[in-house]
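Appendix C: a fully annotated inverse folding record. The material below is reproduced so that readers can follow the format used throughout the book. The structure is listed first as tokens, followed by the designed sequence.
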């Protein structure tokens, strides 16, 4: 096998698997017994069942593999047991990197997130070196990924050839769950997006993120971080792009932050009482208070990160969600 991918049943991981297969690589995928494997549909891979918290299974998965892509993470903005995120994201990363070291991997790519990076107070885009501390992290997901980055840096300092990548907000095909950004697109297609917040994000095609992982393995400097992103966009601009692509009207109402905060807090409170998950987690609203703008220039310069037009990325996401039955095809489309 040429590469091990953890998290191959997830959004970014499944696209990475497809890019590796496109390159002619033999791919091994670590999969939990209970995992939904729809994202690997049609992929000729070797499946090894295991868990991030089971070091024995990780050693078995990493054996004889020269490149390890640790993409797996517990990506939830709300969880009844926040400690589960720390166990998977922090301790799980520690276990995977230990297994890669024991197996003698010649390169490890660790998938972090731009959420673990700092955001300048002056509104400028964040970079890999923007100062950040644990207290800057909003919610257990971001905190757990911030701490997991420290684990990756620690292993790099000990000699493991680790490169860290920080994807922004990917969109595209094979978003099976879907992710929060993908769910926003689905809700838009279903006509459920009646309002927006005054916020912004860095949008990137998931295929470019997947290719960025491969480029990081080939060209990345050990111990360095690379933002895998593309264009910074106000949220309303994203909705206007979707409107052009689909003919579905963009929301005209903008919700004030305090109103969104109270609504999300109420949803979380009800979820804890009645069970289930809140439709809008409070962490998501708190994160939206800052524009998540980042500069991917380092990855473009050093890795050659592709920069697919974000409208193309949104169009690919729309096509995939419609084809898979997440939403009905809009009555009027501006693209084929």
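Designed amino acids, in order:
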């Amino acid at each position: 096998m040429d590469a091990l991918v953890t998290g191959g049943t997830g959004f970014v991981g499944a696209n990475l698997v497809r890019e590796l297969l496109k390159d002619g690589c033999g791919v091994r995928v670590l999969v939990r017994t209970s995992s939904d494997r729809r994202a690997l549909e049609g992929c000729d891979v070797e499946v090894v069942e295991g868990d991030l918290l089971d070091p024995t299974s990780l050693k078995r998965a990493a054996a004889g593999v020269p490149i390890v892509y640790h993409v797996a993470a517990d990506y939830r903005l709300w969880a009844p047991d926040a400690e589960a995120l720390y166990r998977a994201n922090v301790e799980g990363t520690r276990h995977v990197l230990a297994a890669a070291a024991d197996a003698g991997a010649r390169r490890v790519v660790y998938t972090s997130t731009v959420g673990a990076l700092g955001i300048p107070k002056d509104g400028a885009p964040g970079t890999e070196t923007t100062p950040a501390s644990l207290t800057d992290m909003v919610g257990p997901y971001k905190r757990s990924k911030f701490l997991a980055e420290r684990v990756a840096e620690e292993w790099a300092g000990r000699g493991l050839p680790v490169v860290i990548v920080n994807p922004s907000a990917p969109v595209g095909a094979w978003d099976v769950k879907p992710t929060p950004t993908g769910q926003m697109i689905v809700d838009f297609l279903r006509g459920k997006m009646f309002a927006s917040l005054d916020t912004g994000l860095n949008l990137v095609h998931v295929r470019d993120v997947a290719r960025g992982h491969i480029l990081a393995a080939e060209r990345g400097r050990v111990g360095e971080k690379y933002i895998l992103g593309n264009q910074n966009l106000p949220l309303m601009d994203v909705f206007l792009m979707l409107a052009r692509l689909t003919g579905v009207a963009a929301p005209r109402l903008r919700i004030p932050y305090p109103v969104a905060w109270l609504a999300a807090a109420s949803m979380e409170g009800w979820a804890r009482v009645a069970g289930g998950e809140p439709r809008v987690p409070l962490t998501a609203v708190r994160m939206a208070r800052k524009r998540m703008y980042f500069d991917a220039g380092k990855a473009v310069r050093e890795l050659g990160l592709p920069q697919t037009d974000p409208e193309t990325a949104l169009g690919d996401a729309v096509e995939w969600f419609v084809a898979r039955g997440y939403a009905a095809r809009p009555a009027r489309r501006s693209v084929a």
